[in-house]
Amino acid sequence: MRFQYAFQKIVDLKSNEKTQAEWMLSSAIGKLQAEEKTLHELLDSRDYMANQLQEAAGTKTPVAKIREIQSYVEHLELCIIQKNSDVHRANDHVKKEKIHLSDKLLDEKVWLKARDKAKDSFVKQMLQREQGELDEMATVRFAMRAR
């Protein structure tokens, strides 16, 4: 006789939910990394343009060009502020997904443990049944020899 767990569909569902939570966390981490990469690119651009501004101020560069560079540096500053906010939101989302995943892991663990207990109980009953049958066979044999 084979073990069949009555709540196997629930165990499968919990396993699928855990897998989905892992994918969601992976996606959130990927988005966070993309946001951080963009932030670093903006910071590099700002530093480069700030150096260009310093060089322009030290040479015979038209004031209009200096103002243009300064305006672009200010624009980059605003972009950096916005991107910092995006990185913070992405980081919060990663934390939320980690909590969600840990909840799903716990759910799955509870159901797997319940299934394992049910299987252990089933195996114990099967062994007891087999032992009972063996005892009965031994008793019948003993009775046959005693005649």
TrEMBL record:
Pfam families tied to this protein: FliJ
Topology term for the membrane: Peripheral membrane protein
Subcellular location: Cell membrane
GO biological process assignments: bacterial-type flagellum organization; bacterial-type flagellum-dependent cell motility; chemotaxis; protein transport
Main location: membrane
Keywords: Bacterial flagellum biogenesis, Bacterial flagellum protein export, Cell membrane, Cell projection, Chemotaxis, Cilium, Flagellum, Membrane, Protein transport, Transport
Top-level taxon of the source organism: Bacteria
NCBIfam families (UniProt xref): flagell_FliJ (TIGR02473)
Name this protein carries in UniProt: Flagellar FliJ protein
Organism taxonomic ancestry: Bacteria, Bacillati, Bacillota, Bacilli, Bacillales
